[in-house]
Design brief:
heterodimer; A: mainly alpha; Cytochrome-c3 Hydrogenase, chain B; three-stranded antiparallel β-sheet; 19 helices; about 50% helix; B: alpha/beta; Beta Polymerase, domain 2; about 30% helix; elongated
Amino acid sequence: MIQEELIKIEKGSEPKQKIIEALLSKDTSVTLSEDSLDHEMILNMGPQHPATHGVLRVLLRLDGEMIVNAECELGYLHRGYEKLAENMTYHEYIPHTDRLDYISPIANNVAYCMSVEKLMHVEIPRRAQLIRVICCELARISSHLMAAGAMGMDVGALTVFVWTMREREKLYDIFDILTGARFTVSYMRIGGMAQDITPECITMIKTFLDGLAEATKEIAAMLHKNRIFIERCEGIGIMPPEEAIDVGWTGPCLRASGIPYDLRRDQPYLVYPELDFKVITRTECDALARYFVRFDEVAESVKIIRQCLDKLQPGPIFADDAKIVLPRKEEVYSSMEELINDFVLVNFGQAPPKGESYFAIEGSKGELGWYLISDGTGQPWRSKIRSPSFVNLQGLSRILEGAMISDVVAIIGSLDPIMGEADK
Amino acid sequence: MTRFIFGCCLQARKLTINFMFAFEELKNQVPDIEIVPMDINGTIGAIIPRENIQDIARLIKEKFGFTHFIDALGVDRNERKMRFEVIYNLRNPETKERIFLKVRCDERDPHIPSVVSIWSGANWHEREAFDMYGIVFDGHPDPRRMYLPDEFQYHPLRKDFPLMGIEGSIPLPISEDMKVRMN
C-alpha cells in the first residue's frame, strides 16, 4: 500500500523511477521496533550535495530518522574512459588517467603505465622505480590528508580541512617542480617518466616531510581527543570482515575491518620488497577505524619516502628500448633514427604482443588496476579500469542500513569515494 | 627480474598444477565439461562453459578459498561465434593467489548465469557489463543499468557503437526558453 502510493507520488515528479522500485523491493535486514513511526519516507540525497564528495546520488528509505534501505545511483560523471581508451594509443591515454582519481593523479599514472609495461614485458631502471614509489606515496599522503580533512568537515570540524589543505598546497608545489603541473600531472611515460627528479625537488620533499610530522601532530591534537568527532564517528558504518571481503572492498576500508590486504606486501611491485613499512590494520570495522587507518598510513608513507630518497642513485630513468620509449626531444631534433622512432610512436603507438594482462597497484583508495587486452595494434582492444572507489561504494548501502540519517555524511566520508574514479 | 617486479608468478605455476587436479575431479563428476586453462601474463585463468559457471564458482569459493571478488569485466571479442566474454577476477585472501575465470556467450543469446548469489560483490560489476555490452545475467537480483540512463537503448562499449555516439539516442532536457525559440 505505502509502496504503491510512494511510487505514484514519485511518478509525477520523477521520470526515472526504476531506482525507486529497486529501493522498495530490496530486502532489508533492519528490524523495526514496536513503536516504529509506521510511515516511510523516501529522501533523495545528491547528486548536488556538498557532503557526498562529488556527484553521488543516494536514495534513502527512512522510517523516522532510521535508514531502512539505501540505493546508490552512479553515472553523473560517466565520461566513457574505457571507450575512449579503445580509440587512442597507449600514450595518448595517460592524461585521461589523471582525471579518474583526481586527488591522487600521479598514482593513476603509475598504475596505468605499469599495466602497459607488464603487457609489453618492459622493465624500468632502478632510479625510475624509486621515483615512482616516491610519487605513489606522495599521492597517497595527498589523498589521505584530503580524506581526513573532508571527513572532519563532514562532521563539523572545519579547521582540520583547512589545515590539511594547507599541507596539500605544499604537495602541489612539489608536483609543480617535479612534473610541471600542479593538479593533472601526466608525469609517467611508458617505460619511464617525463623528466628526472631535481635536487631542488628532493630538498622540497625533505622539507615537506619534516613539516608534515608537525602538521599531523596538530591534526591529531584537533581530532583524536575531540569528543564530538569521536562520538560522531565511533560505532557507525560497521562492516564485518567477511562481508567486506564478499563485497570486494580493498584498501584502507578493508584494512579497517581487520584484514591486512595490501598489494605492496601481498603482490610486491617496484622496490617495495626492499622497504620497511607496516601494514596498518584496525579491528573495530567502523567509520572511525577507517579514519585512523588512513591517518596512520600517512606516517608509513613518510617512512617509505625517506627510505627511497636515501636509496636514490644517479642513473637512467628510461627503459632501454627504442620501440617503446619516446625519445628525448633534443635527440629527435638532431638524429634521424630518433626522429623516425618518434614519428612511429606518436602516429601508430607502441604495439604490444597479442594478449591480455592485469596489473594493479595499491592506490590510496584500494586496488587500482588495469585489465588490458591487446590485439597487436597500437590501440588497446579493451582497457578495463578496476577502480577502488566503485567497489567500495558498493558496500555503502549495506553499511547504511540501520544507521541514523545524521550519520550518512560521516559514513560516506569514511569510505572516501572519488566520483571521477567510480564513474569512470 | 620482470617477473619479480610484477608479482609472484611462480606461485601461479604451482597453483595451476593444483587446479589441473581440481578440474580433473570436476570432469569425473560432469563428463562432458570443457575447461580450457590458460596463462594470462603470469596469472592462471580458465575458460568455463556458461552452464557450469555457478557450480565452478561455488567450488572455487568453497574448496579453494577464492572469497575475495575483485573485478568482473565484459569483453566484445568481435567474433562470429561466442562474441561476448565475461572475465571474473578473483583472489584468495589466505594464500594471496589470483585467478581469472572466463565465460563466453553468443551474440544471439547473450545470457550468462549470475554469480551474485555466490559473491555479492559481483552485483555492480554485472550491472556494468549489462550496461556496456548488453550481456544479460540470469538470476541477477537488481538488473538495472549501472551508469547510463534507463531510457538509453544502446550498449556503448560494443565495437559496433560509434565513438561519437548516436544522434538522438537520448532525449536532452529542453528548457522553456529553448521551446519558445524553436517555435
